[in-house]
Amino acid sequence: SQQGEEDPQALSIQEGENATMNCSYKTSINNLQWYRQNSGRGLVHLILIRSNEREKHSGRLRVTLDTSKKSSSLLITASRAADTASYFCATTSNSGNTPLVFGKGTRLSVIA
Amino acid sequence: KAGVTQTPRYLIKTRGQQVTLSCSPISGHRSVSWYQQTPGQGLQFLFEYFSETQRNKGNFPGRFSGRQFSNSRSEMNVSTLELGDSALYLCASSSQGPSYNEQFFGPGTRLTVL
């Protein structure tokens, strides 16, 4: 069963705008990871944020984590057509070595 | 470093047959995880192997099995295929496992069951 729930399910923006995707989860986590998938291909890792971290940056990506609200957000700034993809959050629980549990993803379309 | 490779990339089988999928992790990675992706259920965890031992298993029937070899290459097998097994099967590798570090995914094997 899915742990994370992404919101919105789909997002369409113009090139140059910022895109924000949210992820909520249910149980205590060890870490939360964001991945991108282009058209049914393999997933590409974007950022990993640990439960004791609140914010991380990587290039045009900014991820925040609020463990009190059990939520995370992914911000893509100055979006490009090449950012068009599905974005997934995934969590590992804090009870030992556990697998990634994925949400259903947000489908982002960036229009040139 | 070469990325994660999966073979075959596409496969068409009929109901009742069995299939074996292969995954070669990034050199030096000891953890290999398998996921099934379908439009209805999304990405679901199948199993994880670490140093030839199954470390975690998802909620799939016993028709789904896997193994890992001493060179960390992994295979998964699905016996008695059903229509609902049609999916993209993804494997991912990492040095220590998803609880510790990022996962590197292969391109997937698209299985169609007729």
Structural account:
The complex is a heterodimer of chains A (112) and B (114). Chain A is mostly beta strands and 112 residues long. Helix content of chain A is 0%, strand content 57%. Chain A has strands at 5-7, 10-14, 19-24, 29-37, 43-50, 55-58, 61-66, 71-76, 85-93, 101-102, 106-111. In chain A, strands 2, 4, 5, 9, 10 and 11 form a 6-stranded mixed beta sheet that branches. A 5-stranded antiparallel beta sheet of chain A has the order 1-3-8-7-6, with no helix packed on it. Chain A starts with a strand and ends with a strand. The model of chain A has no long low-confidence stretch (mean pLDDT 93). Chain B is built from no helices and 11 strands. Chain B is mostly beta strands and 114 residues long. The mean pLDDT of chain B is 95. The A-B interface holds A 2, 30-31, 33, 35, 40-45, 48, 88, 90, 92, 96-105 and B 4, 33, 35, 42-45, 48, 55-56, 58, 88, 90, 92, 97-108, 110.
